Amino acid sequence: MGDPDDRRSEVTRQPDGGVVQRGGERRGRDRRVHGAHEQPGIERHEVPGTISVGAYHQYHHADRWNAVDTPLSGDGEIDWLASDEWLAYDVYIQEAGTYELTIHVAAADSFGGGDLGVVVDDDPLRRFEFGSTGGWYDWKEVTTAVDLPRGIHTVRLVVFEGGWKLKQLEFR
Fold it and tell me: Which PROSITE patterns does the entry mention (predicted)?
């Protein structure tokens, strides 16, 4: 994704006023990104359906652990996502159309909420924000609509503003 002040970034504006930026320097899902961890053996997820947050095929941790490959937990929630991190999921979308994407998040009042983007095969689709949920274990559902193509794709959640927890994604 790109920096809003970076003139090389392309910006996609959404009908609701949200924007998703597309950076030019790292494109293509076959390249290993510095600071990324891959989980072999994760099966492709069906859409519509529910995806456990730990069932990602690749996670970029923004040098959280000094670029050491450290997997996130496979079950439960992901503790404290930081800005510039992302999670990628391989999916099979059964039918092209508009889907409701619901994410389950928790954010303490002291950290506020979050800002994230949804990207499919390097194409930015949606950027949206949410506020505090009241605490680290006060889970809230945040929903947005995304248009998805039929077939095998990679869906990536990109964290623009971190400091929150993520539990699962639902496509309906």
Answer: CBM6 (PS51175)
